[in-house]
Write a structure and sequence with these properties.
With about 100 residues, this protein is mostly beta strands. It has a single domain, classed as Transthyretin/hydroxyisourate hydrolase domain (Immunoglobulin-like, Sandwich), CATH 2.60.40. The strands form two sheets. Strands 1, 2, 5, 8, 9 and 10 form a six-stranded mixed β-sheet that branches. Strand 9 and strand 10 form a beta hairpin. It starts with a strand and ends with a strand.
């Protein structure tokens, strides 16, 4: 089965972004949602998910990026999907 965690870093401010809404969806149906804690993390956004294609959506603290969405293909195991965001750019990577 699959589990997902995430965190959001406000790279402009140089600190974790707390209170960021994050949703995980499959075929546009939300299967999990959460809000980042004081450390900018959601340690367990979802668990026991079947393999497949998912969308992870972030509502970051950015005056430009109102919503950031990534489509990911998840197989067996744990996935950590972070977001780095500033007013001028955003990026993600497959974390560990």
């Amino acid at each position: 089965m699959i589990s997902v965690s995430t965190h959001v870093l406000d790279t402009a401010a140089g600190r974790p972004a707390s209170g960021v809404r994050v949703e995980l969806a499959r075929a546009r149906e939300v299967v999990a949602l959460g809000e980042t804690d004081a450390d900018g993390r959601i340690p367990e956004l979802a668990s026991d998910l079947p393999a497949g294609r998912y969308e992870i959506m972030f509502w970051p603290p950015s005056p430009f990026f109102a919503r950031v969405e990534f489509e990911v293909e998840l197989e067996d195991g744990h996935y950590h999907i972070p977001l780095l965001v500033s007013p001028y750019g955003c990026a993600s990577y497959r974390g560990s």
